């Protein structure tokens, strides 16, 4: 069998002592976490390991001994070997480095259920990052006799094993040392592999290795500056990794979160009052992009300022992504405010807005005059054409009067609206969408009138066409049934069908023109809504981790061969595979509210052909990921 030992690189030059780690259950593998330096008291070591078990929840144990040759410590290896009686284990790993060499050797001691040493040794030597295997057999303190042994690392304590070395067998056990960077493994989060066929055994083992190192974080809090009788070597043994700025932010975040929570509570109670829950107010607020964005940011702040600590990785990443997104949003909004108020661009925008609205109204008048004539040489129904044209022209005159009535207050309105960008760029974009909808309200009215008239014509023609074929629509069963009509019904149906058929080109032309204008407005609002949703949902924090600390989001691992020589065991280096960018966005993007009804292109074309209304409003009940 193959015994895999996961060994941290930071312990390669540690002083002599004991190996602290964990045997992975169900796997013939061991994870080394730290080295306890000599001198030490075994009772204090047992007490310390018991304390770390309670804090981390990991079944920590003494895996074996580590011997680093030094002057005056020639008998250290045998002393550490004798400690296996104080720390009884099913298997005892004895790692040692040789004087003047970079490599180190490994002995595996195995005991039976009575605690008697049955077999030992599988000496592995590595030179320049590799190891060499050599099988020996012998008892404790006895003479060694060459021969292979057959061991299964990770077996239960008390299981009897046969020593093939006594029979003169030459088969050698395989031991693989897998070096890993302890800091990266502890800080990384392992994700399932996509679009691959991974090894089931490796996939079940890696999460246990990563989880063991991650949950053993309390073990890494003890450094060489602490006044403790136990001294360890691990990735933080030279000093804890930390930042004064981060610690100050943690201390200041508590009162800030309490104040923000109190303000949000007042705001939520105000929004839930009966005055604002009147049906017309609730309907209008659900259609305004600004109100939807305000409620969305309120929900975000409640999530970030929640007193519940983020223990799960997904919860932490959600809070971090929302915090970074909100911070970037506010910074972009302040930058927009600085740009707008720097050179009186608000006044210039107000002076340009009213003439632009007049120009649009003038172009619409010319378009209606063209439709009231013979557009593109088409023969229109003159009576209906004149009625529709004058009706729409009257609406345009009303709109122009409304714009000129509001023109003295436009600059003041824009000045206060610009200040809303201090709440974030998304608020400014939401206000832009609402202002666009308000300035093009007359186009929306034209579209609704034309769509309703065209829809009535189409459905009337379809109903009369079924009348000719002796059919009718059964409303209760939602199907077409046969029906017999008398002569008067057929005569009236023929007259109505003829009238609607000859009026269809006129209504269809008006509907087509105003639908195209409406689609232009919808496209502009759609771009604005998509920009807002992109800022709200894009996982900026996760993407930053992927770009600058890719090991934090791991999709798997890859192994590099450090040493592969004939007659020597394999020596590997475990590197972390970062998660793909597309997987990062798909996994950690913040759920948002859809900007549009989730209709397919076929359903959208069907609605346009039948004259059904298309609304670009946000639907707050439709929450998508």
Q: Report the strand count.
A: 20
How far the N terminus sits from the C terminus, by CA atoms, comes to 46 Å
Indicate the structural class: alpha/beta
Cα-based radius of gyration, to the nearest Å: 39 Å
Keyword list:
625 residues; alpha/beta; two-stranded antiparallel ribbon; 20 strands; disordered C terminus
Question: Can you put this structure into words, describing what you see?
Answer:
The chain is built from 17 helices and 20 strands. The strands form 5 sheets. Strands 1, 2, 3, 4, 5, 6, 7, 12, 13, 14, 17 and 18 form a 12-stranded mixed β-sheet that branches. Strands 8-9 form a two-stranded antiparallel sheet. It is of the alpha/beta class. The protein is elongated. Helix content is 50%, strand content 16%.
Architecture blueprint of SSEs:
Blueprint: E1 2-8, E2 17-23, E3 29-37, H1 42-56, E4 61-67, H2 76-82, E5 91-97, E6 104-111, E7 117-119, E8 123-124, E9 133-134, E10 136-137, E11 145-146, E12 174-180, H3 182-187, E13 189-190, H4 200-215, E14 232-233, H5 244-271, H6 279-287, H7 289-304, H8 313-342, H9 345-372, H10 382-406, H11 410-419, H12 425-439, H13 441-468, E15 471-474, E16 479-482, H14 487-537, H15 540-548, E17 553-563, E18 571-578, H16 581-588, E19 592-593, H17 601-610, E20 623-624
């Amino acid at each position: 069998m193959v015994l895999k030992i996961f060994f941290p690189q930071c312990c390669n030059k540690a002083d002599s002592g004991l190996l602290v780690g964990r045997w992975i259950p169900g796997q013939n593998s061991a994870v080394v976490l730290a080295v306890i330096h000599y001198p030490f008291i075994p009772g204090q070591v047992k007490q310390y390991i018991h304390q770390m078990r309670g804090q981390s929840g990991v079944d920590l144990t003494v895996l074996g001994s580590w011997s680093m040759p030094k002057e005056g410590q020639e008998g250290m290896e045998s002393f550490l070997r004798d400690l296996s009686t104080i720390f009884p284990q099913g298997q005892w790993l004895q790692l040692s480095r040789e004087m003047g060499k970079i490599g180190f050797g490994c002995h595996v001691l195995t005991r039976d259920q009575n605690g008697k040493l049955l077999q030992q040794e599988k000496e592995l030597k590595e030179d320049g990052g590799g190891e060499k295997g050599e099988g020996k057999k012998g008892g404790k303190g006895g003479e060694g006799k060459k021969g292979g042994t057959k061991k299964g690392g990770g077996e239960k304590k008390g299981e009897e094993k046969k020593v093939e070395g006594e029979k003169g067998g030459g088969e050698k056990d395989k031991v693989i040392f897998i070096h890993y960077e302890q800091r990266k493994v502890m800080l990384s989060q392992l994700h399932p592999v996509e679009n691959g066929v991974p090894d089931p055994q490796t996939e079940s083992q890696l999460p246990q290795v990563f989880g063991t190192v991650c949950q053993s974080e309390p073990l890494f809090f003890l450094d060489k500056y602490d006044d403790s009788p136990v001294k360890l070597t691990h990735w933080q043994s030279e000093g804890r990794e930390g930042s004064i700025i981060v610690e100050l932010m943690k201390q200041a975040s508590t009162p800030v979160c309490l104040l923000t929570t109190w303000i949000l509570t007042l705001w939520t109670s105000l929004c839930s009052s009966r005055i604002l829950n009147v049906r017309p107010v609730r309907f209008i607020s659900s259609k305004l992009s600004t109100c939807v964005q305000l409620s969305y940011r309120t929900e975000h702040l409640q999530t970030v300022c929640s007193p519940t600590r983020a223990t799960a990785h997904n919860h932490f990443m959600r809070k971090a992504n929302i915090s970074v997104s909100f911070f970037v949003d506010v910074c972009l909004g302040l930058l927009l405010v600085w740009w707008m108020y720097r050179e009186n661009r608000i006044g210039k925008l107000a002076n340009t807005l009213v003439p632009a609205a007049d120009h649009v109204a003038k172009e619409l008048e010319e378009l209606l005059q063209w439709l009231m004539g013979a557009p593109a040489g088409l023969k229109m129904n003159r009576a209906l054409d004149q009625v529709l044209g004058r009706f729409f022209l009257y609406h345009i005159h009303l709109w122009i009067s409304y714009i000129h009535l509001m023109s003295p207050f436009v600059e003041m309105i824009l000045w206060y609206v610009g200040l809303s960008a201090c709440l974030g760029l998304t608020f400014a974009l939401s206000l832009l969408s609402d202002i666009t909808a308000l300035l093009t309200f007359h186009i929306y009215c034209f579209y609704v009138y034309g769509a309703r008239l065209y829809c009535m014509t189409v459905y009337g023609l379809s109903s009369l066409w079924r009348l000719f074929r002796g059919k009718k629509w059964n409303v209760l069963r939602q199907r077409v049934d046969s029906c017999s009509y008398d002569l008067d019904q057929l005569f009236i149906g023929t007259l109505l069908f003829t009238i609607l058929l000859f009026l269809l080109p006129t209504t269809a032309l008006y509907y087509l023109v105003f639908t195209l204008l409406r689609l232009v407005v919808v496209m502009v609002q759609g771009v604005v809504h998509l920009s807002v949703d992109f800022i709200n949902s894009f996982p900026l924090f996760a993407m930053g981790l992927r770009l600058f600390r890719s090991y934090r989001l791991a999709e798997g691992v890859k192994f590099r061969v450090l040493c592969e020589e004939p007659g020597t065991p394999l020596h590997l280096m475990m590197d972390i595979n970062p998660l793909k960018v597309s997987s990062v966005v798909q996994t950690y993007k913040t759920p948002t509210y859809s900007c549009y009804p989730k209709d397919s292109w076929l359903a959208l074309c069907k609605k346009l052909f039948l004259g059904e209304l298309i609304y670009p409003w946000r639907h707050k009940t439709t929450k998508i990921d």
